[in-house]
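dumping this here before i forget
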Amino acid sequence: MNRNVFSAMRLGGSLAALAFATSAVPAFGQEADAADEQETNNAGGVIVVTGSLIQRPNNTSVSPIITVGQEDIREAGTATLQDALNQVPSFTVGGNAATGGQGTGGRASINLHGLGTNRNLVLLDGRRLPVSDIAGNVDINILPEVIIGGVDVITGGASAIYGSDAMSGVVNFKTLPQLDGFRVDALSSISERGDAFKFNGALAFGTDFAENRGHLITAFSYSKQDPVDGSRREFFHDKTPSSFIGTGTFVPSATNAPSAAVLQTVFSQYGITGTRNPLLNLGFNNDQTLFVQTGAVNYRGPTDGNGYMVIGGNVRMPVGQQIQFHNALERKTAFVKGDYDLTSSLNLYGQFMYVDLTVNTESGGSLTQFPALTTIPVTNPFIPADLRTVLASRPQATAPFTWNGRYVGVPDKNWDENYRVAQYLAGLRGDITDGWSFDVFASYDESQHNQTMHNAVLKSQVYRLLNAPDGGASLCAGGFNPFGDANARSLSDACVSFITKNARSVEDLSQTQVQGQINGEIFDLGAGPVQVALLAAYRKNTYEFSPDSDLVSPNAFNLIVPSNPGGNIEGVVNTLPVPPVAINVKELAAQIDIPLLANVPFAEELAVGGAARISDYSVTGSVTSYELDARWRPVEALLFRGSYQRAVRAPNIGELFSPPQGAQLVIGTPPGALGDPCDVRSTARTGANGAQVAALCVAQGVPAAAISSYQFPTTATGQVISGSTALSPERANTFNFGFVLDSPISSGVFSDISLSVDYFNITINDVISTVPGLTVLSSCFNLDGSNPTYSNSNDFCTLITRDTLSGQILNVATPYQNLGRLKTDGIEAQLSWNIPLGLLDESGSIDLNSAIGWLNNYEIQQLPGVPPVDYTGVSVGGAGTSSVPPRATPVWKALTTVAYRTDTFGIGLRWRYQSKLKDVSSVLTPANAQVGVPSYQLFDLFGSVRIEDEFELRAGINNLFDKELPFVASSQNGTDTALYDAIGRSFYVGVRFGF
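structure:
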């Protein structure tokens, strides 16, 4: 059956199955339209405004707030909340379904202003959500969309109101305030190419009981998305051209190189004359002849297919064909929320959340990379005859030789990341006396992350096969012959089982919260009551990590090769366990709101306010944050607002206690990317100071005999991240000023129009971060002017470790430090315009909504005392979820929607825009900047049909014009699939009904 037809049947079948399962229920209940509502307390009439502890009789906010309603989320046509939110200009992509390679979890995290996912706070109804990793990030995959009534986004600091993590802002997800009856909501989508299938289905139930004294909402949801790998998109056909290839290669040693004359004799037998460089890698054809990998001399394999290509004259395996650029996901959630009026002024409430989430990530075939290359003894029976001749010509003819390759006979390495998250919350709220109320709650949440690495290749077992006199045939059927692609692929099932395992690791996190708050009115100056809020809170976070024994040193391979510093699993950097650790904080906070004038000329409203918070952290001590704000409404239609805040962020558990943990650092292949500056192809070696760079490389460990031809063999190396208890808190000054203008006209075309414009300015000092690995390499080798004497004792150079035999980078240390300064500022504007137009229906109108972000500056000072680096308008090409700089810092971003809507149907077009970007090489290697990323824009078409309030059908086309992926020079994969749409044109259908 045609794949597209089959996929379309899946799309329709998913919706039909869900509809059938719920079609037996007859009528539709009533619910509040939570897109426009906020939850009120049981005293009635006051509104809890996101970003404030004060309960006001209106929804005036002194902080810039972006509200994303239910309709906005539904019309985005995405299966996940973060994909809908990442379209808003205030957000930079943090973690999503395209950031989970190499077992990093595929978490859905939020990043405001590009300041890092750990510098904004994620809440549910104003309360903290469970954390999902050691960095304190919240995975919003855990939220069932069906109970989300809307999202408020504070785009300025709020540490004094909410605590440490709210340095760049707050994202508050609001649950439905009430629901009476059942609601069913489902969405399926699929790409035009018949892949990238997604399904999200949910069932919610709400009811009142005990004569309306009690209220209950329950929700259950199921989500699934299929993976997509690079072989499904032509763009990745030639991307990430790795020199680790399935044929295997012999890597000559500069201190024990074969004879050039013998090489010439061997290749002359193939009819190839001329001399060969004895330090170049030799590969193995299927007929057991040799080829020179650099130059593809005598290469007899496929040149543009079966996973191999000759790129730039060199034999490569494009890993882009193997990677899973869009992860698989399966999620089940349960949510229960209820409250009960004990008395007319006392309300008991509770909430329970459970999530079972599994994300599968994949990185292709394992390679013989970390932390050192593999050796083979000359006694191995599978060594081809011509290679034996070459090996015998070495000065130390009987010495083992270095072999590298890619395990094409083993299924691709992949990870199952299973998260089980539970949160229990209970509270009591009510009135104390006239004008005074209280709210106290306690919650406990736990997150267990079970990671299983499938098809992990064990170095110790490979070593046993390669060193066995019979090539391992006595250990598993056929043994292991790594010489040539055909031989490598013929590995028996028994040998696959012998050299692989499922490596299991477990992370445990927990969070305990207790918080009490009192709100009251103290006096009235004539413009309204002066209100105060007093808060006391306690929070404790714990963490424990138990990695698989083969990820930890010492291990079975260390017993065989004592000089090996890392783990026993190929292609994975060493990691260490974390024993149970904990941090806690005790906090006191207060906020005051003082109305000064009201309903007088030039002051319909004039008020000032302030907040302060003292936080006592168990490790770093006490810190104080504070805030001052003002709002002025000279006329009813115009509001000016502004605030200043001293925000503080204390280091989290990961930054404090993380032991040296291995990760991959993507460096790319020079000269198109930074790569290893010691590589002869790099701009560092070919530039005016190439001789000084070469001398520094030798001082670091590149053998002098190999320096003239040294090449780093792949596009990534090891990175070691470690915490430090010597860290001090970050301190930031955040400032925002803006206005909100509502139309003063009561009727006509311009009667329903609203415009808000806000300027933000955030400066963070003593930034807690790792120094980016690319910056370490660039700075050590003076590509940015940081090491003018080319000294190996330079602070950046001391972070680089090389293999003294091959000279290759083993790892780059990037410990957490208090670095220099991070500064950003810009303007964000929102326009909403509703134009009555009863052409097809009396209720018809044209809606125009636009959110525009302009970035004036994004500047990083890596270390105290060094000049700042301007990252404004720069594409980094890929970054960790909490990293600074972020993946991209475009000067302009915009999201604009134009729609025609009536009470029964709607149709619209959405435009997503991002301005052009410079490549990060313009910052790291300005003398040889690579091509940047052009402006990027997508168009989406959406529509919906509603039959009264009982049934809604929605459908749309995302990436309407099938926009191609842009080329990103600094990215390992030639683009950034987290930021740009690699799926292409896709279609979705959604249905919502209830009874």
